[in-house]
């Protein structure tokens, strides 16, 4: 329980610190999102390495995505993804109806514009995890109502 609170506080401070520095002229908002995504990418690589060291090899891409939605998400966010959809052509949509990093924010419409900066780290987390499992991807996030969000994963064929 304490580690969850620490993670939420650390994540909030990382985002706030990045954007505070940008407001003081040390960078621009686009770079903040890129930095947060890059930090998430590296963390995702490390976590996947640790979580999969004792597991059997995955059969296919869908098997890997199921692992991300169940085991990986449960370890990081203490719950499974609520919904996984695919078009079977390399696009997956992961839906979390009560995303932990957004639950601290008010559910009002006025905070929707701030939500994407709190999702950049998680996009990197997913992309980094998939990268270490041999899948090159592009991950984007979308919020239409708080605290629910969707992560779209587009697999890039090598």
From TrEMBL:
Signal peptide: none annotated. InterPro entries: NO_sig/Golgi_transp_ligand-bd, TRAPP_component, TRAPPC6/Trs33. Keywords: Endoplasmic reticulum, Golgi apparatus, Neurogenesis. SUPFAM superfamilies: Ligand-binding domain in the NO signalling and Golgi transport. It comes from the Eukaryota. It is found in: Endoplasmic reticulum; Golgi apparatus, cis-Golgi network. Its main location: endoplasmic reticulum. GO terms for cellular component: cis-Golgi network; endoplasmic reticulum; trans-Golgi network; TRAPP complex. Gene3D superfamilies: Trafficking protein particle complex subunit 3. One of its GO terms (biological process) is nervous system development. It holds the Pfam family TRAPP. Component of a transport protein particle (TRAPP) complex that may function in specific stages of inter-organelle traffic. Specifically involved in the early development of neural circuitry, likely by controlling the frequency and amplitude of intracellular calcium transients implicated in the regulation of neuron differentiation and survival. Belongs to the TRAPP small subunits family. BET3 subfamily. This is Trafficking protein particle complex subunit 6B. It comes from Lonchura striata. The lineage of its organism: Eukaryota, Metazoa, Chordata, Craniata, Vertebrata. The gene is TRAPPC6B.
